[in-house]
Amino acid sequence: NMDDRLRNGGRDSSPDNMMDEDESSLIRHLIRSHNMRRPVTSHSNNIPINQRIQMERNNGEELTERRPRLDPDTITFGNGLGSLQDLLGGRYSEYDRNDHPRQNVIPRILGPQTPSRNQFLQRMLNNSSRYVRDDVDMSSRSFPIERVREEAVEAKKWLLVCIKEHSHTSSFHLNNILLDATVKHVIDSNYFFVSYYKSDEDGQKLKMFYKLNSFPVVLILDPRTGEEVATLPSNCIDATTFCNYLLNFITKYSNFLAKDAEYKKMYGELLSSQPCLSNDNSYRKRRFNGDCDDSIGQPSTSKKFRKDDSDSVNVIVENGTKLTTIDQDDYKKFSGYPCSESSPVFIIVQFPDGKRLSINVYDNATLKALFLFIGGHGYNVRDFYIIYGYPKKIIDYTQADRTLKSMGFEKRELIFIDKKYSNFCLNYYSNNDFDLDMDVVEEVNDDDHKDLTKALNVETITKDDVVEIIESNVESIKRQISGVFATDQVRHLLFKTRFNSEEVIKKLKDNPDSFLIDHKLLPVEDDVRKCKRIKMNETASENISNNMECLICCSQFDLKEHKKLKNNCKHCFCKSCWFIHIKNQVDMNNAANITCMATNCDVVCLPTLVSQITDDNNKGSFELYNNYMKTLCNEYIEVHPKMIKCPGTDCLSVIFAENASYKEVKCSNCSKKMCFSCSFQFHAPANCSNMIKWKRKCEDDSETSNYIRAHTKECPKCHTTIEKNGGCNHMTCKFCSNEFCYVCLGQWKEHGTSYYSCSKYNDDMKAKTEKNISKAASELKKYLHYFGRWDNHLKSLKLEEELRKKIKEKINEKINKNEGTWIDWQYLYEAAEVLTKCRFTLMHCYPEAYYFTESSPGKELFEYQLNMFEKAVEDLSWYVERSEQDNRSHLSLCMAIAERNRKAVISEYYKKFK
Which PROSITE patterns match (predicted)? Predict the structure, then answer.
């Protein structure tokens, strides 16, 4: 500490940091001299030292501004006033009014120079560098980030990036650490170091791209891909600890050998390993983050694995549920075909063990080819991702039916196979998860403005996973209750109670018989549980006497077969009647509530009975049982509070969420977004009930009736609808020839020739009719007002989708022309994404506003927010369409304002459900 050293006579406990009496007094003298006012003239060195000091006291006010005063006993650094080294070096030219070159402060104050004096001054400068850490950088301070990346690639070193603020205590503390001799040696030997301020252009780029919220921050980047490898702690540590982090990283990762490493995203979310190009297959790195799992995906010793039964898992094997060996050439069956619209794609596949293989396919091939190629080399594709592209994209086996062209594969691609570490990993560079963090609007970063449209703990599963979840619930209930209950019975009770396990356990323990009867698993009366047996004539053969007569078709069937086909009610029917009855119910999408065919018997038929009825080894029985199980599973999903079917076209996935309601979820298979409550597109701030009514109103003819009531009238005799198309009020109905007045609907013969009797106001006769007509016209006008705005934003969304594609093409074109990288132009695409997201939310504000009444609470506040939100969206749209001609700062400001208004509207939406 500087002041401690001065108070102690320039000494501390370290023998290397000794400072004699002359040095201590010199420092105090320099500080006192610094506090004086000194003129800045080109001939000041020719004036004796005592005269110059006197001249500064008398005339300094006219020549220079007063410098910041330094207290020798309480001297502090890092506050923007400079440092002792600045003082000794005379670097205060910013205080000069006349822009004269500053002369060195030390010769002017200390007088004549001698060799011994120069050596003493040099020793003083060396000592001062130990006391003060200047805000300086070791390399590439003013170089753009792209140039630094290129130089780091050539140097084959990790890129160490420091981003800090100008006047912040933590930044000055970090300067002290970075200028430590040992830290500098470690960085110079193993890293390529660059430093930026947050306010710089490159600092803003890095801040937005890596979504940085706190500063200073030190990142380790892979210069070839630009991806973040690690984030080093920059606060509350000393130089020794920081140096240990740097050395540990090099020890574990070495240079450019991070192909299996895993990195930690901000907010604590785990990412799969970031791909780095490497030809060295002999080294396996471990994670830099010590709190994460150390396991790395290993290739399996066998090429056999089990297939899931769902349709989405057919990418692995094709023949049922048996263990199957995949040949390494099986992928060629799905590698595409040459045609006028297809192009060849050369793909290099890098496996977790470092091995690289290449394949040639066409862009009309499906991802199924890649997964079969991976499986053929011993990897279970259910446990591994395919990672490709920059920014990084992640795909798994659920997307196997998509083509390479639809996934954006180029003519040459490098893909990486990486182990799945979490089902809830999010793509770090996903544009859909754009989190605005701009200095211009600090409110966006507050906890009150978090994006509430994202549901947590959401997973995309298959229907086989649904069956596993339900069966685990059934087994859990059976372990907790006393008594013997069939699995089918417990499953049906869960279905009837909307999978409320606690209710099922409680009622089965309290009164099981009553609970089973209430849900039609047992008949109401015991005497109907058995059906009266109908015997044949005594003259019949013994074989015939063992037959039963079907109560539906009156045919005979074997009694032994009847024992297999009995339901809980014990009514007997032949197998063919059961088969037809079940088929008819399944065709009507009713599998969970199939009841007995007997009169006044509503006992439910369970899957065990259906399995016995369809046990024949023929195609019809097999198809019926499969259709029955699929329908039954769909009904379970519809009533399960934690599951919804994905509404995407031809998508068989199911969305499972632990704690999601009225929130936006996304299917990882088809990327379809939806509301978890109603399965529509997410519609905040409109609630589900209003959105359903609005959809129905837009699709049916409900507003047509309003138009008819507002612009037409009915004949008072036959009630035929009549529209007036002329000026005369004398109307004649073509159907009943009734002549009446169009104004009052009275008989025309009651009207005189000189005036209409209906011109007289009659409150009793006209009030009700006029009220109905006025109400219909008002409702129609209100609907057309909101529908017009809804439809206008819907059309704008379609146009802006094309604009987003053009922006992406323009960015790729600029990158190909070496006019920057994706980091330089990504803000344009992100602005288009923010515009789409905001306009989509704005569009769904109008259905909610339509169903507001005059007495609705919060109506005025909502309309005010809607007005501000619409203005912000249109301003953003204007700047996005002119993005290349206008200032980027204006675009960023509009993005921040629009996003802030969007989140404000959505936050009000969620307050309704608290």
Answer: TRIAD, UBX
Phi, psi of 907 (to 5 degrees): -65, -35
Question: Over 80: is that where the pLDDT of 179 sits?
Answer: no
Can you say whether the dihedral through the CA atoms of 390, 392, 396, 400 is positive or negative?
Answer: negative
Can the peptide bond before residue 857 be classed as cis, meaning omega within 30 degrees of 0?
Answer: no
Nearest to 469 by CA among 491, 486, 489, 496: 491
Angle, CA of 157, 159 and 163, to the nearest 5°: 160
| CA-based nearest residue to 490, from 510, 469, 475 | 475
Annotated catalytic residue, options 728, 733, 838, 894: 728
- Token couple for 598: 């007997």
Residue 728 annotated to the active site: yes
Give the residue among 402, 409, 364, 369 at the shortest CA–CA distance from 387. Answer: 409
In 3D, which of 272, 304, 308, 297 has the Cα closest to residue 397?
308
Q: What is the DSSP letter of 530?
A: S
Strands of 250-343 (E only): list them: 304-305, 324-325
What's the burial of 766, exposed, middle or buried (CB within 10 Å: 0-12/13-18/19+)? Answer: middle
| Closest listed residue to residue 135, CA positions, set 211, 83, 57 | 83
pLDDT (tens digit per residue) in 58-83 = 444 433 333 344 444 433 333 333 33
- Residue among 329, 325, 328, 307 at smallest CA distance from 316: 307
- 606 Cβ contact partners less than 8 Å away, ≥ 6 residues apart: 486, 488, 489, 492, 521, 568
3-state helix, strand, coil in the chain (%, to 5): 45, 10, 45
Encoded amino acid at 909, one letter: Y
The token pair at 577 is 């009647």
Tell me how crowded residue 542 is: count the other CB atoms within 10 A of its CB. Answer: 6
Taking only the tens place, the pLDDT of each residue in 685-698 is: 888 888 888 887 77
> With contact defined as beta carbons under 8 Å apart, do 361 and 387 qualify?
no
Cα–Cα distance, 520 to 592 (Å, whole number)? 12
pLDDT digit string, tens, across residues 839-875: 988 998 888 888 887 777 778 888 888 888 998 998 8
Tell me the C-alpha distance between 312 and 839, whole Å: 34
Q: In whole angstroms, what is the distance from residue 352 CA to residue 296 CA?
A: 8
